[in-house]
User: What shape does this take?
Amino acid sequence: MSEFGFQSHPSYEAIRYINNDGTINIKSDDYSSHQKHARGNELIREYMQRDFPVPTNDRDYVYVSQLLQAYGMSKGIQAHRRARLITWERSTGNSTIAGLW
Assistant: This one.
């Protein structure tokens, strides 16, 4: 069994709902209180700087974080598929189940 996931920022609607003023401000105290991973926002930025141009406004930043999530998940799925093929070739009988979050 493999488990993998990749965090992104939620939809614009969810961010507006979380922020009491209805904005897409990902640096607000209201929004920041919903980030439960100690390095969550830092990791999003780190990977975004590596793989994508980093937007300067929050609206575009949220969108690119979602593109980054899709890119990261596709890499995990591709690696899992390759490992499954190796397992079948070796007939090891290992599980090829993946849990995505």
User: Anything to note?
Assistant: The radius of gyration is 17 Å. Residues 2-100 form one domain. The beta strands are 2-4, 98-100.
